[in-house]
Protein 1
Amino acid sequence: MSFLSWLYPPICQGCGWPGQWLCNHCLAAVEFYPNPVVFDSALDQKIPVVAAGYFQPPLSRCIKALKYKGVQDIGTWLGQWLAEVAPVPEIDLITWVPLHPDKLKVRGFNQTELIARSLAQTLKLPAAAICEKLIATTPQAQVTNKLSRLHHLDGSFAVTSQWQKPKNLIWLKQQRILIVDDVITTGATLNCLGQLLISLDIIKVSALAVAHGQ
């Protein structure tokens, strides 16, 4: 057991009952999001996106405890929960929304990677870091202008050097890839990453988030 696991044993983030990150009663209170997610018409609809629930209590409390309190075990649990409740499409490989290195250094971990790797392990699928974030940008939720949101992330992401190698790229093109995120706000982040992967001639790209923020 890690120090943080000892410091933060499973306690329901909804009601405080010990033993689970969400007790059965609070799990039943999670409001599921009607899928598929439909974004602004300016976003490319070639990328099917699914969100499990709304970003509201009790689900939002789990995500906040993971991101801001560093309770990494919740990331593992969220990945397992997604495997149980989310309509995961047919996929071959799972990846996640990368963090900028500066933010990763401050936080110490990427919460979406924890969720994605747990989901992959539960589904018995491979997981890999395909993209990296090159530019530190303002969170999408803080960009209020619709047109600005669409272009806010232009050039922010790139495929890692490992996956640009010809042999790896040939293999990657044959995979049906799922991008995992914790919370969808405007959808622009997933759209930007999805378009980057589509530009590589990946046969299928889809996305899955724990919660939808709108």
Note: The domain at 32-212 is CATH 3.40.50 (Rossmann fold).
Protein 2
Amino acid sequence: RQLDGAALAAAGIDPGAVRISVGLEDPDDLVADLEQALDAL
């Protein structure tokens, strides 16, 4: 489900925000995955 621009603005969410959802994983694995994703940008 995605919110439109008006709903995001009403919620105070900046259009440039990035949502990250993590679970019970090793912190080093999470950092490595995030670094890999950012390097791909």
Note: Residues 23 and 36 are 18 Å apart (CA to CA).
Protein 3
Amino acid sequence: GYVLQCIHCKQITIGFGILVFSRTVTEFYKLVEDTHSCYAHHLAMGIDPKLRSIPFLQLSEHSCVTVSLNDLYYLGELLDFACAKLQLEKMIASLPNN
């Protein structure tokens, strides 16, 4: 997967499997929360990690897709990495110029 941010509008585009979708920065952070919450909930239920039976509305604006527990795990990893990168860039931008 991949995560890209437009330097002009700051919209974040996420590519994951065959899905590609865009979010504002606020919506992106909500997606991160929802992904981790959904993963934790279904992990606690003991769902088969490979079975694509988990409805996940956040991935598509117009329809619900079903994902596996493994998919949610890897999406969470991808989004966490992107969050860390955004936070690092924000921190670097706030450093003094000298």
Note: Strands lie at 2-5, 12-16, 19-23, 54-56, 65-67.
